[in-house]
Amino acid sequence: MTPEGAPAPGTATRRDGRVTINDIAALTGVAASTVSRALSRPDRVNRVTRERIQAAARDLNYVPNTQARALSSGRTDTVALLVSDATNPFYFGLIRGAQQQLRAAGLALLLVDTEDSPELENDLLGKVRRSVDGVILAASRLPEKTLTAVAAELPVITINRNVPGVRSVVIDSPDGIMQAVEHLVSLGHRQIAYVAGPPFSWANEARWRALRSAMARHGLTGIRVGPFGASRRSGSAAADALLNTGATACVTFNDLLAIGILHRLAERGIDVPTEISVVGCDDIFGADFCSPPLTTLTAPIEQAGRMAVSMLLEQLDDLGEKTSRRTQLLPTHLTVRRSSGPAPRR
Amino acid sequence: MTPEGAPAPGTATRRDGRVTINDIAALTGVAASTVSRALSRPDRVNRVTRERIQAAARDLNYVPNTQARALSSGRTDTVALLVSDATNPFYFGLIRGAQQQLRAAGLALLLVDTEDSPELENDLLGKVRRSVDGVILAASRLPEKTLTAVAAELPVITINRNVPGVRSVVIDSPDGIMQAVEHLVSLGHRQIAYVAGPPFSWANEARWRALRSAMARHGLTGIRVGPFGASRRSGSAAADALLNTGATACVTFNDLLAIGILHRLAERGIDVPTEISVVGCDDIFGADFCSPPLTTLTAPIEQAGRMAVSMLLEQLDDLGEKTSRRTQLLPTHLTVRRSSGPAPRR
DNA sequence: ATGAAAGCGCTAACAT
DNA sequence: ATGTTAGCGCTTTCAT
Fold this sequence. Notes:
The structure is a homodimer. By secondary structure, chain A is an alpha/beta fold. Chain A has 3 domains: 21-64, 434 Repressor (Amino-terminal Domain), CATH 1.10.260; 74-171 and 301-329, Rossmann fold, CATH 3.40.50; 173-300, 3-Layer(aba) Sandwich (Rossmann fold), CATH 3.40.50.2300. Helices cover 42% and strands 16% of the residues of chain A. Chain A is built from 12 helices and 12 strands. Chain A has helices spanning 21-28, 32-40, 47-60, 66-73, 89-104, 118-128, 144-153, 173-186, 202-216, 235-245, 255-267, 301-318; strands at residues 78-83, 108-113, 134-138, 156-159, 167-172, 192-195, 223-225, 249-252, 277-282, 295-298, 327-331, 333-335. The first copy, chain A, has a 6-stranded parallel sheet, with helices on both faces. A 6-stranded mixed sheet of chain A has the order 7-6-8-9-10-12, with helices on both faces. In chain A, helix 1 (21-28) crosses helix 2 and helix 8 runs parallel beside helix 9 (202-216). The longest helix of chain A is centred in the C-terminal third of the chain and has 18 residues, at 301-318. The relative contact order of chain A is 0.11. The interface between A and B is large, with 59 and 59 residues. The structure holds a DNA duplex.
């Protein structure tokens, strides 16, 4: 099964796909168990038999049956990635990073979309848990105790969700938000609003707290509007609410929302950044070419995906608790583009 | 395992996760096979026993072991989706559509990224084939004979790749390209270039042919530049090559490339659309808010994903050959935004 | 170092 | 309608 039809040296595809270790055993005159060993723990078998077996496997175009392997060994070589909305560009990067790292380790990716519902998330998690070696929960909406319980029974890594006892990768947007506030304050803004995302989002609260405290440091008070859905569509309502606060600048829960806001502001004839500055979060695909290009907190999204997988694999191998750090904080930085500028003179 | 910790009415989570049909059988006093039946084909079992069994299953928090089920039944309830680049926004829609439809049918999605390599695609396909009930190949780079061979042994649906004997969903961009050419010609353009995508892409050739023939219909000759990678990065080289042809308008292989071109043109101080018009393909996320917003061929991407799954499921159920249409053509339409305008006077 | 045998959890004939 | 009996393909003791 190579592209040009040269499956094994000198042999045409033979009984392709239904070859079992028994066939190999028969062909090589050894027991099936020996074949199994030769294939999964080559060091536990005599060199010459091992090579005979491996050659036969190649000849017969043997592909191990993962279900059977899983059934007896308990390992599925598959990892589930749960995202709350497969449509959100933020997750694309995550998916990609995870996929990369998994492939490198020879594992498969089961993608699950929880549609932003804690109930569905929990349901689906229950369904897949037995089919995977571990789970990566991106921006989980699950209550803390559920999360802890799940993590006790199954290797789990969360992304952007920090719960005691659960290893996690968190993108340090709060730190970035400090930078964003400094940036805006230095541009003369005094009325800065946080445009909040979905209610169950842990990251959302973390970001709001960061904004508030950064503001407080300057003796200012953060304004909060929302909650809004983490989508472009929600941007219209958000923009209107935002204008109503009298803020001269805002930091939004994520870029999707920011892009939606930009759109609505243009629609209402309000210029960005001369009349109002907008700062997003994440730096997703599109943030650099929307109009005006968005000032945002650049998050190492793919890296987060890769990191989550690495941590999970580490946990799978180590078995014990001697695993490294419980939570990995990934730094963000402010990327200034054209949606932020000096505060308007009043 | 419900979000708030109320797993079964009145019962705390019990032996969670390792409950088998035997436990249920023991509890209800029936044979394991009866439990199996009650759970998978409820109509084949007496109503009262069935209900007892179902209640017990719920009480014990039973979750079927998919590997075991797969091993004995041959069905994995999983479908693989192979994409050539999980990073390409075009696939996001596909993934999403597929995921939706699969969930509705209770199947899981195994996502595979082939990194644009035919060899890797073939390899990975070999690995997953036994773990899934069927496969959806998005923009496959596999040679025709390989594809035919694979499809003979496993339910396969291709997307944007038409090969005899393989059922497929194809987005009718060629038809859209006709519309695009009409649009451009009516704006006075006479020199229109096609900015070609990756060499192994079937869709790429189809689009080029469509452009050439649409041009011919007006007694004009299509210009071709490329090939280029289907990415924004490739847009720079593409823009430069494009300008060199003297064309006043272009249609690009996809939006990613078009957005890259737009960027490069701006960089070189060339105004779109007064100096040159750009038309993309697909209408991906971002096409409507880049600058200027992109005139493009709107493709029903999510629908394509859903359709592919439907066709696959149909094939899985019907088993026989009485399945419907071999290839589903999905219409596209031209969405005119601001990147196309009247040809410049010479 | 290798073989024999048991079994992972489930489904699917075949009986009853 | 339900129970009995074999496996599915593999890994894993336990012998040898």
